[in-house]
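Please review this one:
***
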Amino acid sequence: MLPLIQDLSEPQYRLLLAFQAIILKHAAAALPAPHDSDVGDAAGTLASTIETAGKGIIYEHQTASVPAQRMAAELRELLAEIEREAPAAAREAVTALRRIEQGARDAAAAFPEDGATAYLGLLSRMMADVGSRTAERSPGGERQDRTTGLIIAP
């Protein structure tokens, strides 16, 4: 996984984590369940659309499958929210999305036992580990994020 985050700037890394969180949330609720190929297609399609817009051409690239299209829509929605706060985020998002695309395409070789969902499985394990280290329960039952101090009510 290190090559996927190697040489990323802080904004790119934050976008990568945000996109991965959306991917996991979407994958948990989606029917039919997406595969790594859908993740790679969704991330690559959105990156291509952003790159094309950067050249002054308004064209929305399309995914090859319905699950990938649904995931791409959620990623696009997140990016639109981020761009309201940081208009230059699209430039940074391309790198993060291309890393997700690469990870989704290469994960099966690194984790052959997980098959078509190797990348999603890896993300699930990684994000669960991060969540268990950064969130703890307060005596009142709320979770407190140790990194930001944010209290999240149950």
Notes: The chain has one domain: 2-152. Helices lie at 2-5, 10-29, 36-54, 66-85, 89-110, 118-134. Residues 87 and 122 are 31 Å apart (CA to CA). Residues 133-154 have pLDDT under 50 and may be disordered.
